[in-house]
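Notes taken during the Thursday session

The instructor put the following on the board and asked us to keep it in front of us for the whole hour. The protein is Type II secretion system core protein G. We were told not to look anything up and to reason only from what is written here. First, the residues (149 in total):
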Amino acid sequence: MIPTRTQHRRPARRDRSGGFTLVELLVVLVILGLVMGLVGPRVLNYLTSSRTRAAALQLSSFKSSLDLFYLDMGRYPSRSEGLSALVVRPGAAQGWNGPYLQQQTVPSDPWGNAYQYSVPGDKAPYRILSYGADGVAGGSGADADIVSQ
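Then, after some discussion, the predicted structure tokens were revealed:
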């Protein structure tokens, strides 16, 4: 028998160009964390201010609708009728030509709370307000009350 030489096979090298290393993934996660830490608060601030602006615009819409109600009825809705008098005829009211809002129901404020309507207002025939993000009277910043002028 002829002695044969056995060939020792080297283990196959892995091709590492197809994936990411753990260090690369950690670097990407750190960069994403830094970006979110810088951008996140600005986005949240923008959302808060946009809700406040939306509430102010809704109050302006209510004012226009209430003025139309006044022109038709000769009075503003009573406290018991509230803002719903803008979408549903109050009792046997004569002269009501509503609905005065485009929606079928009175919308809630941007935080999901009901607008508060009172007659008479402080310096006006009525007052409409949103209690802001916290839903209670008073507050500052996003929690500040938004009142019709």
